From TrEMBL:
<keyword id="KW-0663">Pyridoxal phosphate</keyword>
<dbReference type="Pfam" id="PF24857">
    <property type="entry name" value="THR4_C"/>
</dbReference>
<comment type="similarity">
    <text>Belongs to the threonine synthase family.</text>
</comment>
<feature type="domain" description="Threonine synthase N-terminal">
    <location>
        <begin position="2"/>
        <end position="80"/>
    </location>
</feature>
<comment type="pathway">
    <text>Amino-acid biosynthesis; L-threonine biosynthesis; L-threonine from L-aspartate: step 5/5.</text>
</comment>
<dbReference type="InterPro" id="IPR029144">
    <property type="entry name" value="Thr_synth_N"/>
</dbReference>
<dbReference type="InterPro" id="IPR001926">
    <property type="entry name" value="TrpB-like_PALP"/>
</dbReference>
<keyword id="KW-0456">Lyase</keyword>
<keyword id="KW-0028">Amino-acid biosynthesis</keyword>
<dbReference type="InterPro" id="IPR004450">
    <property type="entry name" value="Thr_synthase-like"/>
</dbReference>
<dbReference type="InterPro" id="IPR000634">
    <property type="entry name" value="Ser/Thr_deHydtase_PyrdxlP-BS"/>
</dbReference>
<dbReference type="Pfam" id="PF00291">
    <property type="entry name" value="PALP"/>
</dbReference>
<keyword id="KW-0791">Threonine biosynthesis</keyword>
<dbReference type="Pfam" id="PF14821">
    <property type="entry name" value="Thr_synth_N"/>
</dbReference>
<dbReference type="InterPro" id="IPR036052">
    <property type="entry name" value="TrpB-like_PALP_sf"/>
</dbReference>
<feature type="domain" description="Tryptophan synthase beta chain-like PALP">
    <location>
        <begin position="101"/>
        <end position="335"/>
    </location>
</feature>
<dbReference type="InterPro" id="IPR037158">
    <property type="entry name" value="Thr_synth_N_sf"/>
</dbReference>
Length: 461
């Protein structure tokens, strides 16, 4: 399997190379040159399998150029061993034909653990074999950072720097990033918003002297391995509901577009998905774009679903790549225009996007109302991101079974959940002392030189 850049000007790589490389050297994102297919029989054969066996069968064609079967199976087993639920991704029914896929039973209580725990294992195997060390720099609006720190803490071959927007993540998210005491992990509270953090990470990748000097690697969904690991739960849940005989739709609380794009890949592989619904909060650039209004950046407005407070949605570039018929030059042109504020989508590409995705928006009041209503109706306490998904799903769903992705545990956002439901969501016992642990964090400006200098000096010490 070869991996190619969405901008068409970077070298083709193997899975392992793409995983360790992060951003392509032309500024694009890696995607598989061809998407492996699963037949109806292959999908039917997933019925009743464990999450781990499903993961192996779905992902193996994407990675088999880089790992032995034994290595890959070992990585999968270790990745999911610490999840707090035997099913890994259990499903609960909210209403007739509406299901909630709980993706928050991993070590940091968000869906990010599904990919990050696996990538942590894959990096260890690959780096050991190569005898290399890397510096991971990641941007987070709250959940990617904690998941990355948890997956890579204590490893000799990896230094991790996580940039998060100061004052714009929940207290639980912040403490998950600032309380681990391992000397290889570093939380940086950046004066800016998530888009500033993500832009600086991409700037670092595009600064080849810095990139090559520190051996930069990325674990944001820039990294296709992140997206790949998230494809698995689309298969796992759809098969549990009767696929391939029965079509299923998904609604996905969306910010950086990685999770919904994993659904797109699942559909391209052959999973009978009817609709993929993008659910946004008040930062609704994706909903506006998918409604035909072009992709134009505004100011990010802080919300009660802070992990989705994003304007420049990284993986939308991958969606555009397919919508523009895999035309790297067209994508590069759009990304240039985005640098100037935004772009309009061509008619043909708009049609392709509309065929692939539906969308909806959920306001702050609607988010609170949905948490309250669901607590009363089903007893399920939703996190504000999952509530955005449930509200939009309820607006669009029809007779096809709808799965809404519950992307984080309510205990990560206790203030909003308590305000809406009157109930305080407790942290799981293993995190009960999170508020008592000492924090370690560096407050830092958002300019590239300051950040690069800090990272260089920290590594050198
Ligand atoms: C809890 C939660 N929900 C939803 C999202 C949006 O996911 P994506 O960025 O893959 O669109 C995020 C952040 O990525 C998140 O942390
Ligand atoms: N919501 C994310 C933002 C980063 O997304 P990623 O999927 O590209 O890592 C977060 O919680 O950090």
């Amino acid at each position: 399997m070869k991996y190619i850049s969405t901008r068409g000007q970077a070298p083709e790589l193997t899975f392992e190379e793409a995983m360790l490389t992060g951003l392509a050297r032309d500024g694009g994102l890696y995607v598989p040159a061809e998407i492996p297919q699963m037949s109806k029989g292959d999908i039917a054969a997933l019925a009743g399998l464990s999450y781990e066996e499903t993961a192996f069968r779905v992902m193996w064609p994407f990675v088999s150029d880089s790992f032995t079967e034994e290595e890959f199976r070992g990585c999968i087993t270790r990745a999911y061993a610490d999840f707090g639920h035997a099913a890994r991704a259990p499903m609960v029914q909210l209403a007739p034909n509406h299901f909630l896929l709980e993706l928050f039973h991993g070590p940091t209580l968000a869906f990010k653990d599904f990919a990050m725990q696996l990538i942590g294992q894959l990096f260890q195997v690959a780096l050991k074999r190569r005898g290399e060390t890397v510096t991971i720099v990641g941007a987070t609006s709250g959940d990617t950072g904690s998941a990355a720190i948890e997956a890579f803490r204590g490893l000799d071959a990896v230094n991790v720097f996580i940039l998060y927007p100061h004052g714009r993540v929940s207290e639980v998210q912040r403490r998950q990033m600032t309380t681990p005491d391992d000397s290889n992990v570093h939380a940086l509270a950046v004066d800016g918003d998530f888009d500033d953090c993500q832009a600086r990470v991409k700037d670092m990748f595009n600064d080849f002297e810095f990139r090559d000097g520190v051996k930069l690697a990325g674990v944001n969904s820039i990294n296709f391995a992140r997206v790949l690991a998230q494809v698995v739960y689309y298969f796992y849940s759809a098969v549990a509901l009767g696929a391939p005989e029965r079509e299923v739709s998904f609604t996905v609380p969306t910010g950086n577009f990685g999770d919904i794009f994993a659904g797109f890949i699942a559909k391209q592989m052959g999973l009978p998905i009817d609709r993929l619904v993008v659910a946004t909060n008040q930062n609704d650039i994706l909903h506006r774009c998918l409604s035909g209004q072009g992709y134009f950046k505004g100011d990010t407005i802080p919300s009660i679903s802070p992990s989705m407070d994003i304007q420049v949605s990284s993986n939308f570039e991958r969606a555009l790549f397919y919508a523009y018929g895999r035309d790297g030059a067209a994508v590069a042109q759009l990304m240039d225009e985005l640098g100037q504020g935004g772009f309009n989508v061509s008619q043909g590409a708009m049609q392709a996007l509309s065929e692939a995705y539906d969308s909806g928006r959920c306001s702050e009041d609607e988010t609170l109302a949905t948490i309250k209503a669901q607590t009363a109706a089903s007893g399920e306490l939703l996190c504000p991101h999952s509530a955005v998904g449930v509200k939009v799903a309820d607006e669009v769903r029809n007779t096809t079974a709808m799965v809404t992705l519950a992307t984080a545990h309510p205990a990560k956002f206790p203030a909003a959940v308590e305000k809406a439901s009157g109930m305080h969501p407790p942290l799981p016992p293993r995190m009960a002392d999170l508020y008592d642990r000492p924090e370690r964090v560096t407050r830092i400006g958002s300019d590239l030189a300051t950040l690069e200098d800090h990272i260089r000096k920290t590594i050198a010490n």
